[in-house]
Every structure is written in C-alpha cells, then in structure tokens.
Amino acid sequence: MRPAKLEGEPRAAALASLLAAGWTEAEDRDALIKRFVFRDFSEAFGWMTRVAMVAETLDHHPEWSNVHRAVEVELTTHDAGGVTGLDVEMAAAMDRLAGLA
Amino acid sequence: MRPAKLEGEPRAAALASLLAAGWTEAEDRDALIKRFVFRDFSEAFGWMTRVAMVAETLDHHPEWSNVHRAVEVELTTHDAGGVTGLDVEMAAAMDRLAGLA
C-alpha cells in the first residue's frame, strides 16, 4: 500500500526537522524542494548515484536536475497527490548521504 | 584550449546528424536539447552514470533533469557562450550510450 498524503498535525510533525534542515515547500504543488551544492561534478554525481540506490529500494524516485556541482530536488508522491512519508524518508536519506544529517 | 562557438557552415555540418537524430536547438539560448526516455528508472540512471564518466573525461558536463524514466538534456559550453564541438561530441556519446547511434 502506498502511503497517504500528509496533512495537518502529522504533516507538521513529519516536516519539522526537514524544514529546519533547509527543505522548503514548493509553491505550485505539494512537493518538498532543496538545492544541494557539492564540491564538483564528481561529488554531485556520486551522491546522486547513492540516492538512486535508495530510490530503487524504496521504489520512490526524486525529480531532480543537475548542473555541474549543483542538484535541485523535488519530492512528491504522484499516486497520493502530494507529500507522503515516502518523501520524508527520501529527503532524510538525501541529507544523510550528503553528510548533512 | 576550449573550443570556439560553432557558427555558420561548420556549425551546420557539425549539427546535421544530431538534428536528424532528434536533437533540437533551444529557443532561449544557444544550446542543444533532447529528451531521452528509457524503460525504467534503473535504465535511465544507468545511462546517466555512463554519460557522467564521459563528462568527466571530457571535462564537459551536461545540464540535465531526470523524472523517473525520462531524462531531459541541455548541452552548451558556458566558456564559449554557445554550442561547441564539445557539445557535439557529448551529444553523439549520449546517443551512442543510449543505443541510438
């Protein structure tokens, strides 16, 4: 079963640490966004590769764009029409793999 | 030495096969763009990984975004202010690694 869209108090609780860690909520849809900047392309793509393995494990994939050493990420769960626990889990994994958590 | 921006007849000659292979020229700046669609995320990211190695070898990196099994690419050479032989080389490598050339 896919997780449900986070709303209300459970959402606030789930997002608190992410928002404190630099994640923001997209304005045009229900999604979490963050820009990661690394030392160079090699470090950026190495991080993307590790995140890709988590994505396959969770069967939940980020929308992301990479320009040289920067990666912009948007996380949302299409099936649920918004941010779910899967996105929270993926966001935390991204921070952890970037050495930020 | 970085290559020079392609213009005129040499540009037309260099781009002919790429345009025939589905590459187009961006409207808002001098760049080559293409959308690659793979069977799934694993295949898409596997391709990105192989392209990343070419990018490091050439010291020339694509601007690209990935949403599940699709990857949108923009190629331009910032130092030269537009499309150069490096972009042509990278575009051809991307097609080759995608099994399209």
From TrEMBL, chains A, B:
This enzyme's EC code(s): 4.2.1.96
InterPro entries assigned to the protein according to its UniProt record, in alphabetical order: PCD_sf, Pterin_deHydtase
Pfam families for the chain: Pterin_4a (PF01329)
Reaction equation(s) it catalyzes: (4aS,6R)-4a-hydroxy-L-erythro-5,6,7,8-tetrahydrobiopterin = (6R)-L-erythro-6,7-dihydrobiopterin + H2O
Domain of life assignment: Bacteria
GO molecular function: 4-alpha-hydroxytetrahydrobiopterin dehydratase activity
UniProt-listed GO biological process terms: tetrahydrobiopterin biosynthetic process
Keywords: Lyase
Name of the top EC class for this enzyme: lyase
Family assignment from sequence similarity: Belongs to the pterin-4-alpha-carbinolamine dehydratase family.
PANTHER family cross-referenced by the UniProt entry: PTERIN-4-ALPHA-CARBINOLAMINE DEHYDRATASE
Protein name as it appears in the record: Putative pterin-4-alpha-carbinolamine dehydratase
Organism (species): Albimonas donghaensis
